[in-house]
Amino acid sequence: MAKNNLDRKRLGQHFKELRTRLGYSLENLASITGVSAPTISRLENGHQITLKKLTFICQVLGISLEDLAGKSYIQISNKQFQANIKKKIEKLPLSSTTYKEINEEAKSFHGPSYLVKMAMEEGYLNEFREVHEIQQHIHYTSKITLLPSSITNALKRNPGIIYKASERNGYLKYKCKAAKKGTKKRP
């Protein structure tokens, strides 16, 4: 059993390495494969997922489970992976426009902390906002839908953010700290 856990963990590490090498976020890959982002995350963290889902993800990427387990995928170029994915997408109920958008997002996705930072720099957080408002703003500006918990974690990790209780019971509102007089903003 310990060996099985070790194998799953190694397989998950290989998969995450491959996904990040290709520049796909969990959400992007979920859109392409139809396997949910939490399931892909479980795979990457060494937890068990069904063999059917794992095999399907590998098929979309154009590799075998053996390639993934043995790390043979390192020898495959990113261009070849993109070609494999594009071929598979043509067979899925996903339009080429959607694939293009996913592909563009994959190249520019930086994660929740980056997107929250961008909202701060745009001045969106100069007023107190609830997480759902921030989520809508990020989706509108970047076409990426983040989970509310991801946004909350990114906000709480940022030392430039303050919060207060919302009028709605149990909710918080977040805002950028006001810049001190005489200090310059970093570019």
Automatic annotation (TrEMBL):
<dbReference type="InterPro" id="IPR001387">
    <property type="entry name" value="Cro/C1-type_HTH"/>
</dbReference>
<dbReference type="GO" id="GO:0003677">
    <property type="term" value="F:DNA binding"/>
</dbReference>
<dbReference type="Pfam" id="PF01381">
    <property type="entry name" value="HTH_3"/>
</dbReference>
<feature type="domain" description="HTH cro/C1-type">
    <location>
        <begin position="15"/>
        <end position="68"/>
    </location>
</feature>
<dbReference type="InterPro" id="IPR010982">
    <property type="entry name" value="Lambda_DNA-bd_dom_sf"/>
</dbReference>
<keyword id="KW-0238">DNA-binding</keyword>
<protein>
    <submittedName>
        <fullName>DNA-binding transcriptional regulator, XRE-family HTH domain</fullName>
    </submittedName>
</protein>
